[in-house]
Fold each of these.
Amino acid sequence: MEASNSDSLQADLLADERADSHSRDTSETNSNPGSSCSRVICYPYNAPRNFVGQFCKNFGWRFCFMLFCAYAGVKGALYTFIGSAQLPYYEKYMKISGQQYQRYRTIASTPWGTKALIGSVSDAFPLFGYHKSSYILISALLGTACFSVLAFLPIGEGSGDLAAAFFFLANFEAATVDLLCEGRYAQLMSERPEASSDIVTWVWSTYHVGKLFASSVTGPVAEYVSPRAVFLFCIPLAFQIVFPTALGYLGEERLPPAERTMKLHLITQQRGVFMLALAMAAGSLGLAFVLMFCDDLVQLEFAVGSSVVLCIMSYLYLPRQLASCNLYMFLASVMYLQLASCNLYMFLASGMYLQPASCNLYMFLASVMYLQVDGAVDYFYTADEQCLPDGPHFDFTYYLTYSNLVLTAAGALGVMLFHACFSGWYFRQVFWVTTVLRVVASVFDIAIMRRWNRHIGISDSVMYMCGSTIIYEVAYMLDFMPAVILTSKLCPKNMESTVYALLAGFQNFGQNVAKCIGLYMIDFFEIKTQEPCNYDNMWKLIAVSHCMLPLLTIPLTFILIPRARLTDSLHEDPDVAAANTKPSDEVDYEGLPDEEAKGFRASSS
């Protein structure tokens, strides 16, 4: 890391210029009509090769490799392993209930709600002369140690809290690497805006490569070897990011000794944003604490109370419409009626049309009103014949591998549908369609639980694949992309990265609140995931959590979402709006985490 990054970058660019000259010579040689057929045949090979060559030309092969390690290795593969492996680990190895499984998953996802604080701390407190690289190395070593413990040391059935703590630290690595690499390539995108789309394409492409690998491995290994054996794949994935980071491939210059002090002025200059990030991190960590040590009622009270506090603070420290949209997304995952009423009252009491704080409110509500009941759903689909004689009885290979592979393809279909059909729509209309599609996907779940599909001759596996996998994932991507466009159009200038981290934290926290309320709902409907099992009211739980409550977000769009098309500028100043209007396909979709979320859900922790 002591070597000069500028010298290595110049060497990379010189080598890339020579390769580019060679490729031009080759293309001139093959420009005759007779070679057109071979070009078509070779396109699947040449197109990726040419893209990677152009990317390396713009940013250097070292940075290209760094992003591959970060997004294919860590955020793609490792993050998918963390999300998928917990089900077989807790259900088959530790033999805990579905409620405990959901509780531990929520604790594990907590670091994704602290991303804004991680970013603020890394900006203000450089370690060993680096704002980003040192934090990545520390998190990678922590993650490697945690996976080593999970893989090699037996953790007893009564030590679920300890396992959740290790998953927490593993997610800390994924969240830290994602955030700090995102901050670095955001800097490069501002320096070379003409090539910014290449970075986004490379990040998403490598992410899906890693996700496909992890999805292909998790199910068969957990089913036929052992749930703990999955973590043997995680150890090298967690550690590999150390090498490119230590070699300086991130391209971060080491600060001179005089500048290695704490930069408290950065915190004071953005005191409001830092206070919001600190409150969000405190809420996330506090929720993890009460999930670990307190009963269900205390968990519910803390989740609702901390949500109200964060929503109020978002109105104090974020532009108004941005805050309201984020709150809507939050409620769309959790929905607790008093919470919705409180935030709606705050909105109306402001006495004005809420510009950028409204988006934060919308996204917050959208996350909250879609209650997360994974502990019941996952156990229902994977329950054995002794627990649920007439159940689907999916094995982990189908449930974690085949469905995830189809889910990835469905996500790509959602992206294509969005660009082909929805890119010129109004924001409100897109959110209406995606909400209805998610409800339709849940109807497929209800059909399986009520055994309606058997009456019409459709198997459980086909019904599940069509509903929860294909329709839901298409709806998720159609919902995700306009949300990112809306956020990117409303972000304050020169605060884009910080605000994106805050919004991602809000939505992750919203999903954790949704999981917390979901735990209460599982008990309310008397779902029992261990013998003697009881899934009689399972369809009612899905009907309330995934159908009725999400539909309540549709009226909120008239209040919290601006009446504008995806291609419109949303700045309050008409002159600024006219100068900054741009097509929706130029927006950076990498602003918000995915998965995470879902990732959040899938992704999140």
Amino acid sequence: MVFVKRDRGLSLDTIDHDRHHLRGSSFKGKTAGKTKIKKSWTLNNKFDRTPFKPGGSMYMPYKEGYLKMEGQKVYVATKGEEFAYYKSINEFNFGQPVSKLKMNLATVKNIVDKKKFQVIFPFRTFVFSTDNDEEKRLWIEALQDAVAESLSDYKVLTEISSVTANTICADCGCEKPDWASINLAIVICKHCAGIHRELGVHNSKVRSLKMDVKIWSEEMKNMMKVIGNDTANAFWSACLNGSDAINDMADKKQRAWHISNKYVELHYAKPHNYKGKQEELNRALIDAVCRQSLEDAYSLVFCGADPNCNTGKPYAKTPYLLAQHLKYSIIAEFLLQNGATSEASPLGHVTDRIANSSRRCDSIHKPKPPNTIRDYLYKYGGDFRNSQDEGKSRGLGLLKSALQQGDFQRRLCIMENNMLRYYDADKQTVMKDEINCSELISIGLCQPEQATKAGMKHCFEVARKTGRTYLFSADRKETTSKWMRGFLGEIFPPYVQNALGTEQDFLRVGKLWVKTQFRSKKGSGWKKTWCTLKGKNFKYFHQESKTMETLDLRRMIQLVIDKSQDNSTPPSPPFQQNGKDSSPNIMIVFREKNFLLPI
């Protein structure tokens, strides 16, 4: 057995069940380490007080890349309301644009039947050309967003976003949403807002927080802050499980499926004792207004209570008038946005929500449609982890030859229907390869030194059962995170995703076999499971409890590579190499029990 001593001052960054490699920490002598740290600290404090941000003020642009302008290749970036172009990516990194302009006076115009488009300013017209029609569409969309951004007013957005819950989309969790549904009193992102519009104004009244500023009264803004995403989702998502939830990478099909289930079919809404009983719901709504219970009034209206029911009070015939009389302005505004008037409904009136409740009960909860992810990525042209000379080696997998910029080739990557396909970026009809996602066993973030030297900053690796490992790189960190979450959705079955909940952005995800060994009693046999690694927490799905069990790696005593024959290998390894069914195991040693993972 080979023992790897654990240094209390360092954390275990990653545990990989991949047969080809096991990543860990390398240790150096204390004296050399202290000298190196001290030297690095001195240099950083003397010369590099401010961290370098590529692009300067255009750091992390919304869209960037090479385009052709007047026959010359230029590097173009857009962020917020600004547009800039550079001689090369190096000038972009050092923040030295040829020109940087605000888009408030610009017009973006498509040139039909050509891979070209215009950006028209009063003083100059820029003509850009792209490699293909898809790139052209993405650039036009990004630049049009920049024009809209430049014409926006942020006062309302800033005020409503002062509530923490309103800083992420109520439906997909996207950061910095700038749209709202005023009758639902939620803040949503641009993509979800498009789906809400399709529901119709009787379900969702969509307004911009930046462009429709004139419609925002003080009462509406106060309502959005007091109710907001927290109170709304406490009702709409009370019964939402992890597999039905969506995130910011969801495509239009998934968003439409989720939002319709949430707000029209009420599949995830908190059930009410008076469900389908119009008179009881009406009385409960009147009582909620009298008690100034905003949460109860909110849930009752969307369960079918009539905001215009007769209160029986001559001075306030409807719940809306009653709220006004009692000076409960937030409740009054909420009822007003949901059809309340000064006139009471006729006796025996049944709301549309009650009338449609039987249809909703009979509706079938359709399965979640597969997500489609489509991006241009850079793929390393070969097996990332193995060279021909050392294809059979295991352990600390290092790249044996330095990666060059030319080793990464730009590919159009599409993941849909449980398949990953990538194409030639210029000839999109030419498919280079396809991977069945059921063959994947591990996906993880990585940043090899050689890849960094080649200019690739946001890398991730994909390991297959066949033993091959692919290396991809994206232009932005957000794109890499999107693909990681997409792969998780393909690898993990729905019941595991339910156990995982809304947690995301892991360092590594995958599936493996696990075996426990207790010090005082007999251990378990090999069990297939799914795992995640984030920070110092290694989580695996516990088959009996149907929950994600957490191993805090800070409490680990030792990390052991067990080469003995005392421990059997899994009955069906997650993947095989060269026809061999046996291999060493990783042993994670804790005080009371050990965990064995195949490598």
Amino acid sequence: IIKSKRMATNRTAWAVTALFFLFLIAASVVSIYREGALFIPGLAPTVFKKGDPVPLSVNKITSVHEPIPFRYNSLPVCTPPDDEIHATTTENIGAIVTGNRVENSVYKLSLLRDDYCEKLCSRPVSKDEVAKLIELVGFEYKAQWQIDDLPVAVSVTSNSEQPLYETGFNLGQKVSEGKSTLNNHINILIHYHTDKNSATKDGYNIVLFEVQPMSIKYSDEGFKKECEGAYSETPEPLVLEDIAEGGAITYSYSVQWRASPIEWSQRWHNYRSLQGGGKIHWFSITNSLMIIFFLSGIIAAILAKTLRRDFLRIEEDENELDDETGWKLLNADVFRAPRWPSALCVLFGSGVQVLGMALITMSFSVLGFLSPSNQGSVVTGIIVLYVWMGLLAGYSSSRLYQIFNGERTFRNTIATALVVPGTIFGICFVLNLFLAQKGSSGAFPATTMLALFALWLCVSVPLCYLGSRFAYNQDPPRIPAQPNLIPRPIPTQRWYSSNVFSILMGGILPFGAIVIELSYIMSSIWFHKYYFLFGFLFLVFLILVITCAEISIVMCYFQLCSLDWQWWWRSFLASGASAFYMFLYAIYYYTRLDIEGFVATIVYFGYTLILCLGLFVLTGTIGFASSFYFVKKIYGAIHQD
């Protein structure tokens, strides 16, 4: 009766889980085909009236060739007085970690009021400041501004039917060796849409923030004439190398308002178009599904033909077991604890922690609760959920440690709470030192570093310990057979059955399932683009889970058939090897970015190591859990017979 109740409970749990994933898959498909950006529940549009002031905020400057951001207000540009500079948005931990510093500016904009050739200021510059501007222009740094939470956009196509925009505008252009120009005039084009839902019908929503940067060399007299003439003919550019010692840079701007048919709910559509059409993403998913069908066919053949035949032989004569060959001979050794069992438990627990964080983050993103349009919300969600998933890390690591009959339970729990999170924190701390030395906005303030440290030690570590207490208060998991005292000798393996070859082969298919979507994620990170394709990402994530599970089961079965019972570590490393291929891909991507400088290289590979570590424990955990379930089932069937 107890067993039947337990089976009924398990079936109910599986049914609820299946319904939840079907709901998320349906939500993913809807988010893919839905027009415009994802809507954040509870977020209402800002309604402006004619003549209302429209704040223009400045953020940071970024470069593809040097992944080190800087505050825009730290440049020799027109800025408010130091005591009047303040953040214009509520800074969350995700925005700070990603180097965003959204601050007020000296630009004065009013709704529907066009301004032409307004002089902003004449900024005296030193020789060192000019040299810094020349360096930033040479690295193709772009300024990131925003109005009403919309990032600044620059048109990169002349096709009016389907305009294409890039976020950020160049500080200047490197014309030739020893000649760099500075964009000191900004033509601001703000697209607005009439808000039909406003009470008085005279409200307006901002739907696009576009700029046209220009370089104009102003003389001491005739500012207005030179500025207006720049719109009818090509002006003489401002060459930074020609600025004399003690000279000044004159900054100016113009503002034009344009009516737009784009509604507020679809205003992010122009930024989404930068991520390519849906065909290539569907091609990626189709390619991954073909891999799944191939692996599923192999597993079906193993289960339907090979295993069933083996079970029938055992049923006919149990005494034949000693004369048999293959995986059945390992029933007394297959559950023998591996070398370094605590290390495997630590990695498994950390993988469960990353898996829980990734699943919940993508679920909220698919449903629209987390969106890049809400600056820093996705990164904040990742950090907070990773901390809270320490509970799952402690529980899963301790349950596996019980199977190995481990005695140092407290050391295993502490290692689970400290090793992987501590490695991530240590890498971030070292990178922060380099970024702080550069004066980058990507360097965490001391308060942010202390907050992250407190989240780790005061929240994640206690939750990990609490999860381990839950695990040790339960009976140890049951395994079909206890190992013999004397381990069975492992015969000499062929070269294609060696650990190194099997592990490297096991990581190819999981990496192949995600490589196309990975390229878009890398582009979003290093090319400073917005990533909205969470529907595709969630589908690819499910494909990754299935691929890791199936490739690990296949590799584990072939290993057992070769009478090698040391499957624990190989099942983890086989699917976890996808992180190795991701690192190789990151090296190739590094050559595409043309990054220069020691600190920039350290920053790139530092953050790449964090991503690869996360993928390693994630895919390794999926593969290990699937192999353990497979081994437990097939050897459990032998002992039931």
